[in-house]
Records
---
Amino acid sequence: MPNNDSERIRLDHVAIAVTNLDEALAFYQKQFNLPLIDIEVVQEQGVRVAKLDLGNTHIELLEPLSPETPVGKFIAQRGPGLHHICTSVNNICQELQNLKDAGTRLIDETPKIGAGGAQIAFVHPKATGGVLLELSQLANTEHK
Ligand code: CO
C-alpha cells in the first residue's frame, strides 16, 4: 500500500519468466538471501509465482503452468528472462482511462484479478519502449 498519498505510481515488482521455479528460487535465496514472501498459483495467469522481498519492491519468479500459457509461450519464443515490470497505482481505472484517452495500446482495457487479489492490467510493450508493463492496484486499496 502506498505509504504516501502523493505517491501516485511506484515500482511494485519486476517479474522474471523461469523454466524451473525451484532452481531460480534457490539461486535468489542462497546468493542474495532474499526472504521468500510466498508461492502462489495464479490460475487466471497460468503461472506459479514466487515472490521475493527486495526492500521496498519485489522480484517475482514466474513459472508457466503449461507451454500454452502466456508465460509458456513467452519462454518458447524468447527464452527465460525479464517478463514485465509492475507499477502500483492508486486508481487503476483512472490510469487506464487516461491511457485510453491518449490512444495508448493496451492489452487489458479493464482490470482483472492477479496475485494477492490485486486488480491488474497490462500495457502493450509497443507503447512502453519494448517492456510489458503491468499496472496494479492492491486489494483493499481505496479509490481516491
Ligand atoms: Co506481475
---
Amino acid sequence: MQERKLMELAEAAGTIAIVGHVRPDGDCVGSCLAVCNYITEQYPEKTVDVYLETPPVKFSYLKQFERICSDPETGKQYDLCICLDSGDRERLGKNVVYLDTAKTSICIDHHITNQGYGAANFVKADASATCELLYDFLDEEKISKEVAECIYTGILHDTNVFKNSNTTERTMQVAGAMMAKGINFSRIIDESFYKKTYVQNQIMGRAVLESVLFLDGKCIFSVVRKQDMDFYGVEASDLDGIVDQLRVTDGVEVAIFLHETENHVYKVSMRSNNLVNVSKVASYFGGGGHEKASGVTMTGTPQDILNNLAERIDEQLKG
Ligand code: AMP
Ligand code: MN
Ligand code: MN
C-alpha cells in the first residue's frame, strides 16, 4: 500500500522537518501537528521540528502547538521533509529551505493544482482536507486522542463544519473515527471556528456592509485595506469567514474578497457555488486552490484586480 510510505520514510529518518503553507489555516496547522504528534508518540527518540508562519492562536488547544517554529532561518538540515497542505513549493514561503536541503521529502496534499514537488507525492483532490487524506497513512489503533483532535480540526475547517460540497461520506467516516477517540468535538467547533473576537465581528460587518454586487448579481465583491486593518488592529487571520459569508448571499455564484497585504498588493480569496471553477481563475493569475475555494495574490488597485477577475469569471458564466 502506497500510504505506508510516510511511516517507512519516518522510520528511516533520524531528523524530520514538517512544513505547511504560508498563512496557515486549520487544515495546515492540524495536519502538521497530527503528523508531529503521531511521530513523536511512536518514535520519541527522533528529532521532529514543525515550521510554519505564526499560526492563529485559536488553534493553541492542539498538542505541541507551542513547538511550532516560525523562524525559517535555523540553518538546520533534515533527513526527511514532510510537506503538508501546500499546493506548490512557493506556498511553503521561506520554509521551502527545509524541503530544498532535506535528503528526501514527501508531499501529502489535496489541491487540484498540485503538480507534485516532493520526492514522493500523494495528492488526492477529492479529499476534503489534507487531514482526511492523512488518516490513510496512520494506523487506526495508534491514533491518540491528541492526534484525533488535530485531524478533526483540519477537516472541520476545510469543510466549513462539514457543509461545503467537498464533504463526502469518507469525510464523515474519518471525522466519526476521530470522535470515537473521545475528543470534545463541540468545544473544538465553537472555540476554533465560530468564536469571533469583537473586532473580528466588527470588520466582518464592515466588509459585508460595503460589499457590492456585479455581473447581474451573480458575483459579490468586498475589500479591506491596510489602513482599515490598522484601524481595527486586526491581522489577516482575523478576516477568516468573510468570503464565506459573502458567498451565501442569495443569487450569488462567486464571492471575491480582497485584503491588502502591502501597498497595492492584495490577497484575493474566491468562493464559488455551482457554475464557476474558481481554481481556474486563480491559476490564470498565478494562484491556485480548489474548484470552489481558491486564492491568489495580485497587484494593482482593487478596481483593476476586480476587472481582471470579472473577465475570467464572466467567460465561465457565459461558457
Ligand atoms: P483562502 O481564500 O486563502 O482561504 O484560500 C482558498 C484556497 O485556495 C486554499 O485551499 C488555499 O490553499 C488556496 N490558495 C489561497 N491562496 C493561494 C495562492 N496564492 N496560491 C495558490 N493557492 C492558494
Ligand atoms: Mn490550507
Ligand atoms: Mn487543506
